[in-house]
Design a protein that fits this description.
The structure is a homodimer.
Chain A: H1 2-18, H2 25-37, H3 43-52, H4 59-71, E1 75-78, E2 86-89, E3 98-102, E4 108-111, H5 114-126, E5 130-141, H6 143-148
Parallel strand pairs in A: 3-5
Antiparallel strand pairs in A: 1-2, 3-4
Helix pairs in contact in A: 1-2, 2-3, 2-4, 3-4
The first copy, chain A, binds a DNA duplex (25 and 25 nucleotides) through helix 2 and helix 4.
DNA sequence: GTGAATGCAAACTCTTTGCATGACT
DNA sequence: AGTCATGCAAAGAGTTTGCATTCAC
């Protein structure tokens, strides 16, 4: 749904303004790039996209923007074990997904699963930590690599 | 159980020998350190332990050993999002646990949950990837930090 | 003796920080 | 005007790699 992305973009920009942050070209560009690229992107991918679009933003500023968005919980930061942080828009409703990582080609895709969420919720009540987030990564071979042998 | 660790140590050393790798002091020391430290250690923690024990191993060799052990699936490499890889002995039976990370103090602890494993197993059959591993990280506040406010 | 494993240092990648410059309110 | 945000370049952290040396088989 095209709407969801721009919805997130508006939401994020509102939240930034509300929190007292100034509206600036570079930061807005990062928000836009996130909305455009969607799920599972790296800081460099964002910088590269903006570069191609002729509105380059310094990598440091991309990191600063992502860090801020993460602190405001407007993006979800995660990491599938390549030593590079990945980011994606965090939807206010709390609905979220998890990731499948292809061990051959490195491709990352997303899935949702209610059974999993329920199991995690139940489990969260059982452990002695007070849980407020979780993430799950499944590793294997994507259909393309599997076909290829 | 004390036995399980040395069992893993023996298993790992056997597996290395079987795979045609030479037995060497430094690599054996890394295996021992892993057995001793157990769950969720970093390369540096291993190097530091060996250092204290007066049998220092170069950090590069620790990484090389860990990399090899990981390829032979004798250790599990994971990452809780601090930008540092963590390792732990992988038990041959396949039994494994997941991690709780304290967002205040960074402490990492382990848990097991059958309900979660079942949910993941069911889910694995549903997705189009062929899954062969998974990991789950729960984030929150550990009891100590929670008490502290 | 031969080739693998090691140690050290240099290289690399990703990320963060210091500081002067420029932009929003 | 007064900050906050940016860009650049330098600094940092973690990890990998090149190469000469040492050690296992």
């Amino acid at each position: 749904m095209e709407t969801a992305v721009s919805e997130w973009q508006r939401h994020a920009q509102d939240a930034l303004a509300h929190a007292g942050y100034r509206s600036s070209g570079p930061r807005n560009a990062v928000v836009e790039a996130l909305a455009e690229l969607g799920c599972s992107v790296t800081a460099k991918e964002i910088a590269d996209l903006l570069d191609e679009q002729g509105r380059a933003v310094g990598l440091a500023s991309v990191y600063r923007a992502l860090d801020l968005l993460d602190r405001l919980r407007l993006v979800q930061r995660f990491d599938v074990g390549e030593g590079t942080a990945r980011y994606e828009p965090a939807h206010p409703g709390g609905e979220h997904h998890h990731h499948l990582v292809c061990q051959s080609c490195g491709n990352v895709s997303a899935f949702e699963d209610q059974g999993l969420e329920r199991a995690i919720e139940k489990l969260s009540r059982r452990v002695d930590y007070s849980i407020d987030a979780h993430d799950v990564t499944l590793r294997g071979e994507c259909p393309a690599c599997h076909a290829r042998g």
